[in-house]
């Protein structure tokens, strides 16, 4: 067993730590493997970790970072100062976020935040494996971009208290972390979650149909199941919608996301306003990222997340435009602050690299 000694540890402390670990292992030989696995999964979920450090080969990999969940400030429900003009300048970091070293090598920028990474560092962290390495290389320097491991995980937006609430719901509904869900599992979970605090409450037929449509949006490749990271991101977004005021959500937007929102508003709007129909249509545009797969998507300034034409979550862009541009809505207009508030949750939902739509817009 190898133990990494920090600067603050003495040799005696390390030896004591090793001895305690050996005694703990020897004292519990009868612990069931499945129970231990489930406990480890819950701990990873609680701490926002995807992979345990001991699962890595320490001789060739870095230790994954310890994610610290955010805390809400007392004034985060007050309107933030996000003006339409002047525009904000977007400048990426100069040094790799992992090794904190600048080199002449190509750095991969995150499309959400300003962090940049060496591909070698990402490999040693275990975040680039197999085909994902090729995809990152191809996407990182395109207009579409790539989300780093911080921004790709929407669950990391939750505070400790919010994560406790979500974990409690999962445990009560007997959801096992790290396991995929079928449509039947997903709908059953939504029924159980709806009954929280009211045992007589259940989903209506319309709500059940909506849950089925959301499942299809989370399963764009028609595999018949939703992967755990996609399900977790979806549930994290629903909890943010439920517990956070829109002003608090606006404070989560990065400078790149604010700039994309400005570009969309200015391109679609008329001066200082935008039609309500265009505002609704913008909710879908955040998911238009893979132009090769969705050539009918003409919004080039909002490549923040994916929605393919073949996705069961939606048909062609043209049919969506017709459905989202009714005559009665074209006469109503919204201003910049309203546009931003109504779109913020969908901008956040488009962060992950996954092809799933983690919060399907209405319409």
UniProtKB/TrEMBL annotation:
GO molecular function, one term: zinc ion binding
Biased composition (Basic and acidic residues): 41-57
Region described as Disordered: spans on this chain: 1-57
SUPFAM superfamilies named in the record: EF-hand (SSF47473), FYVE/PHD zinc finger (SSF57903)
Keywords, comma-separated and alphabetical: Metal-binding, Zinc, Zinc-finger
Domain annotation KIAA1045 RING finger: ranges: 90-161
Keyword Zinc part of the UniProt annotation: yes
Stretches assigned to coiled coil: none
Pfam families the record matches: zf-RING_15 (PF16744)
PANTHER family reported for this sequence: PHD FINGER PROTEIN 24, PROTEIN KINASE C-BINDING PROTEIN 1
Name of the featured protein: PHD finger protein 24
Originating species: Rattus norvegicus (Rat)
Gene name of this polypeptide: Phf24
């Amino acid at each position: 067993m190898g133990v990494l000694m920090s600067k603050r540890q003495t040799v005696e402390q390390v030896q004591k730590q090793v001895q305690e670990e050996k005694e703990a292992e020897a004292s519990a030989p009868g612990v069931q493997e499945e129970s231990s696995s489930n406990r480890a999964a819950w701990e990873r979920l609680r701490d926002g970790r995807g992979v345990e450090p001991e699962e890595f080969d320490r001789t060739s990999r870095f230790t994954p970072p310890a994610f610290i969940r955010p805390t809400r400030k007392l004034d985060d429900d007050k309107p933030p100062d996000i003006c339409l003009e002047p525009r904000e300048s977007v400048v990426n970091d100069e040094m790799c976020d992992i090794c904190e070293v600048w080199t002449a090598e190509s750095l991969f920028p995150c499309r959400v935040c300003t962090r940049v990474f060496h591909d070698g560092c990402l490999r040693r962290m275990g975040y680039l494996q197999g085909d994902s390495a090729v995809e990152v290389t191809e996407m990182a320097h395109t207009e579409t971009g790539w989300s780093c491991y911080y921004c790709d995980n929407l669950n990391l937006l939750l505070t400790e208290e919010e994560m406790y609430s979500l974990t409690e719901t999962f445990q009560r509904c007997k959801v096992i972390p790290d396991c995929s869900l079928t449509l039947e599992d997903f709908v059953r979970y939504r029924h159980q979650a709806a009954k929280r605090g009211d045992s007589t409450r259940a989903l209506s037929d319309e709500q059940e149909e909506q849950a089925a449509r959301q499942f299809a949006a989370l399963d764009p490749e028609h595999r018949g199941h939703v992967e755990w990271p996609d399900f977790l991101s979806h549930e994290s977004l629903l909890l943010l919608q439920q517990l956070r005021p829109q002003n608090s959500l606006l404070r989560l937007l990065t400078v790149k996301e604010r700039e994309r929102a400005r570009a969309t508003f200015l391109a679609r709007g008329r001066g200082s306003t935008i039609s309500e129909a265009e505002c609704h249509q913008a909710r879908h545009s955040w998911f238009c990222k893979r132009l090769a797969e969705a050539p009918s998507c003409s919004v080039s300034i909002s490549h923040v997340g994916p929605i393919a034409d073949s996705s069961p979550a939606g048909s062609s862009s043209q049919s969506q435009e017709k459905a989202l541009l009714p005559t009665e809505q074209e006469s109503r207009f919204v201003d910049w602050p309203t546009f931003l508030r109504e779109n913020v949750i969908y901008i956040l939902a488009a962060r992950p690299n996954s092809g799933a739509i983690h919060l399907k817009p209405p319409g």
